[in-house]
Design goal:
Elements (H helix, E strand, L loop, with lengths): L1 H20 L1 H26 L12 E7 L5 E8 L4 E8 L5 E10 L7 E4 L4 E4 L2 E4 L6 E2 L7
Parallel strand pairs: 4-8
Antiparallel strand pairs: 1-2, 2-3, 3-4, 5-6, 6-7
Amino acid sequence: MAESLANVIKVQYRMDYLSRSGRSSRSLLTLFALATTLPTIALLLPLCTGVWLPDLWGGSITVARAQTVSGHRFQIEQKWGADFYTTELVHTLPNGSEQRGLIDGDADKWWSARIQIEESSRHVTVNGMHYQWPDRDRMLLMPLPTK
């Protein structure tokens, strides 16, 4: 009995000492704050500059798709370039061949896009800007004048 009472007193003394000094709780709090704050800053800092961090490691991302009745498919793809995003219009013909047209080589991140296809005039409208369908691969697309 005396032995267990001595152990209780030792444990109580250690707990009192730690609570008075506050060293262990401050150290743990500091460690926890660093462990949560630094990764959060590392993830949010690129987002503040307009870069979605997973895009740095991935390939191209399809932002929007549309298809005509005759089988022409269009999609907007973005991929991270050297400084910002490269935005392309990919035109897949009914026979399966692809023609890519560059919309913007220095764009911001697009979370969504709207594509409207005018098949009779062979025009595509992307987010309000009118373009001619790409007629060859790797073509620079210039916006058409508005009517």
